[in-house]
């Protein structure tokens, strides 16, 4: 794509349409990702991070999810406009790899890894592939991820460590060099050493040009620092701050970013001022979000206009921030 932009999202809105209510989980997100770039996404649970990921793969990822407004272009494909068939055959797995949240725990416990790999192929190509072909294709890829591919294919998921399961999931999501990879909270159940190894594995995938760009969703600040070029902070279905990783983590501007970084447990003393406080209150109910700034009910800096007018992202010192107070002070 022009200017090396691989992913371009504009004014994206998506909601879950349930029988009794609508949940406005993604409410006006815009950003782009360039070739070679890893964008981290952080924010409390329920802020719309996983929904944003699903929309990027086509809202049919979830039957109750509807892509309401806005555009998504990925490698020239206009995701909201193309048929399910085209998404399946040309986009998912081929252009966009996806490691869904909880995918490690979702490995079918009663199937050996070779059967799970076979399912992955049949889902994609709708045909039966022989075990010999599976081995020929999957073993070298798993080996390149540091796994004994031949042995792993014969095992059941419970026979693998958490770190190995995660690498199997990443391996199966990147079999066809997807270019753009979305990894949703992969490390929450892993210990620190395994998290670091996983981050290294992802960087290796980029170095080997199996993927060129990524979205990495996590609360794990050390991993964000290790792998991300830029970070977006989500709150209540919106991006409230987006910019270079170092700027956002070390000099957060939005009061929510500050509170989030303060509250996230980290072993690194230079971030979060050493104090680990929770953020008081709850993220907004997305069936009926507050007017104005969605963070205003919890924000210490909230003033009159914050409850009335919805802030939009403004360029502030090389990044974008959606906060009335920050813009006033510039
Ligand atoms: N499959 C679903 N059906 C209905 N509501 C959902 C579904 N998945 C998520 N939600 C709701 O959408 C909102 C955003 O959720 P999600 O995107 O999972 O946030 P995050 O990944 O940031 O934790 C939440 O209010 C959540 O309860
Ligand atoms: Mg999530």
**Average pLDDT, to the nearest integer?**
90
- What CATH first level would be assigned? Alpha Beta
CATH superfamily: P-loop containing nucleotide triphosphate hydrolases
| Sheet/helix structural class | alpha/beta
> And the CATH topology?
Rossmann fold
Domains, number: 1
End-to-end separation in angstroms reads 34 Å
Associated small molecules? adenosine-5'-diphosphate, magnesium ion
The CATH architecture name reads 3-Layer(aba) Sandwich
β-strand amount: 15-25%
The counted number of beta strands is 12
Biggest β-sheet: strands ordered side by side in the sheet: 6-7-8-3-9-10-12-11
Give the helix tally. 12
Helix proportion of residues, in percent? 25-40%
Which blocks of ≥5 consecutive residues have pLDDT under 50? none
Detailed description of the structure:
With 330 residues, the protein is of the alpha/beta class. It has a single domain, classed as Rossmann fold (3-Layer(aba) Sandwich). It is 33% helix and 24% strand. The chain has twelve helices and twelve strands. Strands 6-7-8-3-9-10-12-11 form an eight-stranded mixed sheet, with helices on both faces. Strands 2-1-4-5 form a four-stranded antiparallel sheet, covered by helices on one side. A hairpin with a 2-residue loop joins β4 and β5. The two termini are 34 Å apart. The mean pLDDT is 90. The structure holds adenosine-5'-diphosphate and magnesium ion. InterPro entries: AAA+_ATPase (IPR003593), ABC_transporter-like_ATP-bd (IPR003439), ABC_transporter-like_CS (IPR017871), Oligopep_ABC_C (IPR013563), P-loop_NTPase (IPR027417). Pfam families: ABC_tran, oligo_HPY.
